[in-house]
Design goal:
Length: 216
């Protein structure tokens, strides 16, 4: 990928997981090749957009042939880092943390592995969620260092999240999947992906009500 990686826009990077998902479906249906036009019809993205996006990483297509589905799926997987080990922990073993640990898709389909959940609640410590133990938060620093964990999902209340995020970074975490409804201010070399569930729901209700009003 070289140095051009830095200049690739976040919009392109956000589309890559969608390409990966669609190609996974094609693969499962034993489709071996697809044109950018056919892919564009399925994904609702223009064919030229698809070609532009993939040209950022070398293209992969052949004139008159289209894309080899297996090859493109593998290459996009590599770009997304799915060919590497991606062990993670979940901080906060309440309902949301446990739901994430139970969510099979990212564990089994994409190779992310939840190594442990952490909590302060003595009622939760020691239980297993899908074979993964809930450990005392006091053990977290040594666990992160011993297992070289780089990814943490943060499913804590918003008043606890900023302080915990700082500690995670001090202990070597490089990426935080943040479910707490608060912005985290962390060093530039730490990546934060925010999943604001309430904001997503508000966008949904805005669209419902605006469509109703414009339809009057």
């Amino acid at each position: 990928m070289g140095n051009s990686e830095k200049s690739i826009s976040s919009a392109v990077i956000k589309r890559l997981p969608r390409y990966f998902r669609y190609l996974g479906v094609l693969k499962a249906n034993n489709i071996t090749r697809i044109s950018s036009k056919e892919l564009s019809e399925q994904m609702m993205v223009t064919a030229s957009q698809i070609r532009q996006d993939l040209n950022n990483f070398g293209g992969f297509g052949q004139q008159g042939y289209g894309y080899n589905v297996d090859n493109l799926y593998t290459e996009i997987g590599k770009i997304l880092g799915l060919d590497k080990r991606n062990d993670m922990i979940i901080v906060g073993a309440g309902n949301l943390g446990q739901a994430l640990a139970n969510y099979q898709s990212f564990n089994e389909d994409y190779g992310y592995k939840v190594m442990a959940l952490f909590d302060v609640n003595p009622k939760l410590i020691g239980i297993s969620v899908r074979g993964v133990k809930v450990l005392d938060i006091d053990e977290m620093e040594s666990f992160i260092k011993a297992h070289d964990i780089k990814i943490a999902a943060l499913t804590l209340p918003k008043d606890q999240a900023p302080e915990m995020a700082k500690r995670l970074v001090e202990w070597g975490i490089k990426g935080i999947w943040n479910f707490a409804p608060i912005d985290l201010h962390l060093p530039e070399d730490v990546t934060v992906e925010n999943v604001h569930l309430a904001e997503s729901l508000m966008t949904l209700t805005y669209n419902i009500h605006n469509r109703e009003e414009s339809g009057d």
